[in-house]
Amino acid sequence: MKKSLLALAVLGAFAGAASAQSSVTLSGMLDQAVQHTGTATGYAWALGGAGSAFNNFTISGREDLGGGMYSFFNLNMRFRTQNGTINSPDVGTQTGGSSQPGFFRQDWVGLGGSFGALRLGRMLMPLQEMNGNYDIWYGGYTVASTHTGGITATIRANNAIYYRSPNMGGLVIDAAIAAGKGQEQFETANNYGSSAPPTNSGLYLGGVGQRPVGVSAQYTAGPLKVGVAYDRNYADYKTVGLYGQYNFGVLILNGQYEDGDSSYNGTIAGKEKVKALSISADIPVGPITYKVGYLNYNSDLAGKDAHKFGLGGEYNFSKRTLVYTDIGKSAGDRLSTAAAKSQFDLGLRVKF
Q1: Of the chain's two ends, which shows fewer C-beta atoms within 10 Å, N or C?
Q2: Torsion 136-139-141-146 (CA) sign
């Protein structure tokens, strides 16, 4: 009897050790907001998430392989809180059918170790993965956001290989390359009428273009964080970004500067050079965080400039739950009648 109990205890210890070597995590957030935004003829109230990035869930996992190596994966799906549908574009025009991929936002599998981490799949490219970290509105998903947006830098690339270096005294380097075929035009689009031109008609880029490539370097030292990034998309349009953040304690100041090629409204005839500059700040006061930002979007095409002011605030009930409100006002010849009108939102966000 004692031998049986001892054997069971040993087996249980081994099982516990094995389970400790691997993990699967479900995480995400939900956001629902009342929004007052402009239309071509006036204003409209609507209920919906502040942005697609705020309504998603992620299934991620990691397994230790021994010797400091590990494998990992990530499946990230976004949805609409107002009706529960998948929030991803219809990319079925490539095959003549209809297709809305579930894990449209990101999905990859990879290996990591002392050499860094290598992942394969569909994912944000280095410039776009970096620039959202220097935006107080988390990548541009409320009406007040003054995020530069990446101009036409590749947002997400299909069939991509991505490498991230180990942390070298505060310095981390990222590099990625993707296939020249099967990239999507809308993955170069910006909120200010910027996108790369298609190589053929239709939403989905079925033709062959340049291989999207990207590289970035980020250095962190105490309250200071700075980064630089480069991107070339499938249309051979290039974007360079410079980013900085400093935590003064009483406020966190962010700066973004991007210079790149674009095509106004995605037409070859509208090719332009764009410079985008954003300055924004978080001002924490107890459970409240005040937000203020300014964006300037400058084109070398006549009459295609824009600027925006954003003001907002968050009240944190806990680390997971907050309420927020924002006001945004844009102006400039680049904008449509609707986009140039004042916007307001009031929302609730819950992380899990």
Answers
A1: N
A2: positive
Q: From CA 110, how far away is CA 121, in angstroms rounded? A: 9
Instruction: Report CA Rg, the chain.
Output: 22
- Do 265 and 242 contact (CB within 8 A), yes or no? no
**Cα distances (angstroms) measured from residue 23 to each of 17, 26, 63, 120, 122:** 12, 10, 6, 20, 22
CATH T-level topology, domain 43-351:
Porin (2.40.160)
Tokens of 338: 């609707």
- DSSP structural state of residue 95: T
Q: Using a CB cutoff of 8 Å and minimum separation of 24, what contacts does 303-308 make?
A: 303/333, 303/334, 304/193, 304/264, 304/272, 304/333, 304/334, 305/332, 305/333, 305/334, 306/192, 306/330, 306/331, 306/332, 306/333, 306/334, 306/335, 307/331, 307/332, 308/146
Cα(303)–Cα(339) distance, integer angstroms:
16
Task: For the chain of 352 residues, list the mean pLDDT of each consecutive stretch of 10.
Answer: 46 46 91 88 81 81 96 90 71 49 82 98 95 87 91 94 98 96 85 77 57 97 98 94 97 97 79 95 97 96 93 96 96 89 93 93
**Contact status, residue 317 vs residue 348, Cβ threshold 8 Å:** no
Instruction: List beta partners, residue 307.
Output: 296, 331
CA atoms within 13 A on the CB side of 40: 0
**Alpha-carbon span 140 to 128, nearest angstrom:** 12
pTM of the model: 0.86
- Ordered by start, the domain boundaries in the chain are 43-351
Alpha-carbon distance of 46 to 346, in angstroms, equals 11
